[in-house]
Amino acid sequence: MGVAMLVMVASCHQAIIPIETPFVNPAYINESGQEILAGHAAYQTLEQPLAKSWFTPSYNNYVYDQTVVTELKPLLKGKSIEIFLGS
Q1: Is 47 or 57 the better-scoring residue by pLDDT?
Q2: Coil, strand, or helix at residue 39?
Q3: Distance between terminal CA atoms of the chain?
Q4: Would the pTM of this model clear 0.85, i.e. be above it?
Q5: Pairing, β 35-37 against β 27-29
Q6: Lowest CB count within 10 Å: 4, 17, 50, 74, which one?
Q7: Calpha distance 9→62 (Å, rounded)
Q8: Mean pLDDT, residues 77-81
Q9: Is the pLDDT of residue 16 over 90?
């Protein structure tokens, strides 16, 4: 998960993340009674109440290795990255 977050931080800036996604993020109640999201999610989806409590602190407190970012950045030009995660 740390590598995915590093790549996201290194290659994406909030200003270039799509504002809208054509996908609907259905919420489900799991076996423990917790509401969970499923499907594709835009950054803004993670800022909504359902995910905000865990996503925002993790995003704001993430510390990346600047040396690795410097090494990866030129390798990512012209690349598109999809990030898959679970919580």
Answers
A1: 57
A2: coil
A3: 10
A4: no
A5: antiparallel
A6: 74
A7: 9
A8: 88
A9: no
Q: What distance in Å separates the CA atoms of residue 16 and residue 61, rounded to the nearest whole number? A: 21
Looking at residue 15, its pLDDT comes to 46
Closest CA to 65 of 5, 1, 17: 5
Distance CA 19, CA 46 (A): 12
Cα 36 to Cα 12: distance, rounded to the nearest angstrom: 25
User: What are the distances in angstroms from CA 59 to CA 31, 78, 82, 86?
Assistant: 27, 25, 17, 15
And the tokens for 23?
């996908």
Cβ contacts of 16-22, under 8 Å, gap ≥ 24: 17/42, 17/43, 18/42, 18/43, 19/44, 21/45
Q: Tell me, what's the pLDDT at 75?
A: 94
Total number of residues shown for the chain: 87
Identify residue 85 by its one-letter amino acid code: L
74 has pLDDT over 50: yes
